[in-house]
Amino acid sequence: MTSALSIARANAFREMHQPGEPIVLVNVWDVASAKVVAAQPGTRALATASWSVSAAAGYEDGEGLPLDVALLAARRIVASTDLPVTVDFEKGYATSSDGVRENTSRLIETGAIGLNIEDSVGSEDGALWSLADAAGRVAAVRAAADRAGVPLVINARTDILVGGGSIAGAIERGNAYLASGADCVFVLGVSSESLPQVVNGIDGPVSVMAGATSPTIAEFAAAGVARVSFGPGSMGVAYAALARLAQEVHSGKPNSADLAYRPNQA
After folding, report:
1. CA dihedral 162, 163, 168, 172 (to 10 degrees)
2. Does a structural domain hold residue 263?
3. Full domain range(s) for residue 147
4. Could you tell me which residues come within 8 angstroms of residue 169 by beta carbon, excluding any fewer than 6 positions away?
5. Which pLDDT belongs to residue 255?
């Protein structure tokens, strides 16, 4: 992919982040899911979900997926569409800022024009990188993008709320990440109650994840959110349908009309 095309796609994707009129991303995990989502009216960009990409390849989420496999998945999805593609890059697949910078450079080579990077260390106890270290890792991503000449759209994720931290802490981290080069702050675990404070406190676009019990897209928009994604939820919808099909055919129910559906292979 030419740098000119990557630059155009990145700039277009950044402009889609409008508070109150959020870009809605139905996350994908492989070429088939990417083609299905891309073909639907209203789809303006594609986003991967690390949990789903990992599960599809038989690995645990949390960087259990080897970096080379993650990059191959990104490259294949990018090649399957003309839409901008942003990649859930977990923790950058590195423990050092230098490693994050080098791995980001490799991701940019796939043609991806955006990424998520999170501030959790990776343990199950909710531990986060220190604020200084986490901000430094965001800065490393921006440095890689600057070096490549591609205005990568950085969605910096903070896991502080799901780890039991405070709203004030989420706001502090979000603003530090914006100052370090992030374009958008992804606050995982935001609730209906905390949403207004988070959006008002963070000095830039806010990203959230929708789910079965979350606020609706309309409610997120009314609160001023700029980006809504579904994470592994979209894979859950797809495989829940597959599970129902298996149950129905074994119980003697009529064949589903969905059996005739095929993703585009062109």
Report:
1. -100
2. no
3. 3-254
4. 160
5. 86
